[in-house]
Design a protein that fits this description.
With 529 residues, this protein is α/β, with parallel strands linked by helices. 32% of the residues lie in helices and 15% in strands. The protein has 17 helices and 18 strands.
Amino acid sequence: MTVRKSHLSTAMLTPAAMAAIVPVASCQSGEKKSEETKPFNIVYIMSDDHTQQMMSCYDTRYAETPNMDRIANEGVRFTNSFVANSISGPSRACMLTGKHSHKNGFTDNEHSVFDGSQPTFPKYLQQAGYQTAIIGKWHLESLPTGFDKWEIVPGQGDYYNPRFIQQNGDTIVRQGYLTNLITDLSLDWLENERDKEKPFALLIHHKAQHRNWMADTCNLELYEDKTFPVPETFFDDYATREAASTAEMRIFDHMDNIYDLKMDRDDKDSYLKSTYRAFYSRMDSVQQAKWDAFYKPIIDDFYSRNLKGRELAEWKYQRYMRDYLKTLKSLDDNIGRVLDYLEENDLLDNTLIVYTSDQGFYMGEHGWFDKRFMYEESFRTPLVMRLPKGFDRRGDIDQMVQNIDYGPTFLDLAGVEVPSDMQGESMMPLLRGENPADWRDDLYYHYYEYPAEHAVKRHYGVRDSRYKLIHFYNDIDKWELFDLQEDPNELNNIYGKPGTEEITARMKERLKKAQIKYDDPILQTYPLD
């Protein structure tokens, strides 16, 4: 196996960090070590569809997320964190393999099955003596490999009384609310199942914040007295962006009154009513009674008002925001439980704690919900880390990072050489407070899932510190160019406008170099010469 040199030079670390890394070889040989010399542990917490603007260490307009913020306040916040393909399964495959979608083979949720025989960072950690575990959402069609312990939900999972697929092949139902249960199982593994003489990498993967945002019954009353500011682009007309105009994810037109907003009544219908009722039927009688007591007055009021047009659109937006925040409250509370456990069991000093999401999400920007586009709200993702003892970096890290960088970073932290076929870069130099002159200055993106739900066209593109170039292809041939400094909301496509020729040429050259660097075969179909 060809490997790249690890960034974890002992000459660059503080004495405490150096002491923690030295014994990786003895870990592999099974020798017993003192607590002070164990390799670093990794706790990687990932949610689904949680976006930067709904995390208070990034944006204070909407949400309060004290436990997520605690990770940032005690560690680092990445201000330019992005994904390679903004959709659930592909994003997870990029994270596990350190490779873009065309290299790991999982390009979309419609047709892909993850090849579990391929190398992943958990497998490399296992070889180095780590215990590895994943609890929660998987969404890669095949079963997990590279984990000593796994228990996953089928598909997207169910918020209430969810099914879990266990390692022995059984599918069981667990009573309770999914976000709580994933945390329960994760803490149980930490406390009762792992070998406490060995380092571990625990992946805690939540369904929250995924559609359709069914809150725990204890949080149903929250935020009902709040009115949220409507985004300035909420009534976007997509005048210069044809591909955006054909997407089917507008809150007004495409957010289902029953499935998404829970306005279910026997005399009303929608195309997703049966799906909503299937989710509702998973609740027990006590849960349903609390649910009905909360929603019935809102349902009756909604249908009595017979809202239309702009008024209806804004009403749907407010309900969406409240439901989203209620599920977020559970997520943040449960992250707090994990942090408290690690602190109470003296694991903070020797553990890297990561929180992120599989991509960003639209909270009414451009009138939308969902993700998929290379536009900023869904291209970006939150990323905060609490660093082990010996790493003194705190505050913001501004370099551009991508989810293909996670695997290389975890391997580098563990003292494991990063394989040369991983396309991401280790973030370890950034975590040490360095400012590498050769750090990337642009990012590559490729989205494949069309035709499919929400009708977002296939596209690829490149982004640097100021400009973004996107090509929509397949059944469409449209280019978009944005000046993010002058037009941060990406409303004004300047591609083909007089005076942009030099910028366009430069960005096309960046795009070509990225496609060559990452060996994307799309360049053969759509050459940029």
